[in-house]
């Protein structure tokens, strides 16, 4: 797999199994309203993203199930029966069924007693439902039991997205382990990013690139064993903030999306916007833009790790 291509979603995996590489996420600035495919016509039981269930009874664990299959009668009932038959309790269910497509999408959060429903049996039960409904995607995670997602981060000269990601990871606000950081821009040993990585034992690799040599094979070797790769403003050229400032825009935005062969055209995971005005200086404009980019990237990573993201048609996503 080329490092700049989007691979198909990974199948459900049992606990402690190897992590395949199956996702790359990129952050890019965007003027709101100009990105193709930025809206989805949908019919949902709940459209508001909610935090992961906080009220988990003592001795119980939280489980998350993400599902995609051909639409038919009885899917929610079957999922509910599976969880209830094992003594579990559903905390939330989000469902999306497109008006013109015969496809069912859902995300469920539930609590259960691991003594009554061991992890391997939980996996088998949901796998049985997946086979019953001929599901294209059925993934179940137990955050307190399953390994965290392993990520590798690709960065360039700008540090704001990279360092924000590292800070959130240090604070436990991103459910990931960082495998390594790869940059096409060298940083001195006393650089704050380098010092942070050294303190936490995270390898840093400097791989300078040229238009004729993107070092793809070396990158693939370095990210071996990684679940997904995050492009934290990697190889972003030009000065989009200055260009938008000079154009006098009134709204600025940032987009996080899957990576495909077409630059900045992958399916969108998250978008954020903020209003600016004639009172903004170039400096305040850049600060607002960078803050949006940091928040947008972090939210995209968190959404993916919490099983909130599913591919929808060719260039869209369902984000619960």
Unreliable segments of 5+ consecutive residues:
1-23, 31-48
- Strand residues, percent: 25-35%
The run of helices and strands is EEHEEHEEHEHEHEHEEHEE
Oligomer: single chain
Number of strands: 13
Distance between the termini: 28 Å
Number of helices: 7
Major β-sheet annotation: 7 strands, mixed
Secondary structure: helix percent: 25-40%
Structural class: alpha/beta
Strand order of the largest sheet: 8-7-6-9-1-10-11
Please state the overall shape, judged from the principal axes of the Cα atoms.
globular
How confident overall, as mean pLDDT? 84
Based on CA atoms alone, the radius of gyration comes out at: 21 Å
Organism: Urochloa decumbens
Pfam family, one: Formyl_trans_N
Protein name: Formyl transferase N-terminal domain-containing protein
Domain Formyl transferase N-terminal: 236-301
Layout of secondary structure:
Layout: E1 23-30, E2 61-70, H1 75-85, E3 89-96, E4 103-112, H2 119-132, E5 137-141, E6 149-155, H3 160-170, E7 176-183, H4 192-199, E8 204-206, H5 216-222, E9 228-232, H6 240-247, E10 251-258, E11 268-275, H7 282-305, E12 309-312, E13 316-319
Parallel strand pairs: 1-9, 6-7, 6-9, 7-8
Antiparallel strand pairs: 1-10, 2-4, 2-5, 3-4, 10-11, 12-13
């Amino acid at each position: 797999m080329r490092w700049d291509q989007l691979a198909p979603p990974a199948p459900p995996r049992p606990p402690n199994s190897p992590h395949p590489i199956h996702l790359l996420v990129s952050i890019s600035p965007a003027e709101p309203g100009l990105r193709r495919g930025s809206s989805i016509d949908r019919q949902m039981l709940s459209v508001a993203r909610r935090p992961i269930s906080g009220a988990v009874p003592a001795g119980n664990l939280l489980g998350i199930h993400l599902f995609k299959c051909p639409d038919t009668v009885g899917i929610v009932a079957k999922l509910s029966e599976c969880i209830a038959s094992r003594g579990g309790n559903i905390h939330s269910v989000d469902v999306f069924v497109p008006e013109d497509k015969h496809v069912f999408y859902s995300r469920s959060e539930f609590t259960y007693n691991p003594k009554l429903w061991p992890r391997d049996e939980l996996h088998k039960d949901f796998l049985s439902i997946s086979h019953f409904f001929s599901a294209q995607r059925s993934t179940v995670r137990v955050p307190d039991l399953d390994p965290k997602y392993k990520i590798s981060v690709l960065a360039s000269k700008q540090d704001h997205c990279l360092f924000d990601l590292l800070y959130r990871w240090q604070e436990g606000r991103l459910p990931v382990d960082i495998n390594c950081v790869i940059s096409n821009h060298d940083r001195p040993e006393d650089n704050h990013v380098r010092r942070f990585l050294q303190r936490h034992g995270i390898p840093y690799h400097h791989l300078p690139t040229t238009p004729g040599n993107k070092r793809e094979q070396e990158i693939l070797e370095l990210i071996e064993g990684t679940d997904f790769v995050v492009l934290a403003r990697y190889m972003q050229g030009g000065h989009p903030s200055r260009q938008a400032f000079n154009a006098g825009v009134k709204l600025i935005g940032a987009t996080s999306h899957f990576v495909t062969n077409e630059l900045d055209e992958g399916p969108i995971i998250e978008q954020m916007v903020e209003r600016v005005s004639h009172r903004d200086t170039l400096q305040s404009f850049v600060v607002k833009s960078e803050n949006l980019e940091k928040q947008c990237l972090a939210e995209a990573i968190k959404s993916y790790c919490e099983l909130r993201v599913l591919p929808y048609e060719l260039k869209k996503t369902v984000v619960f």
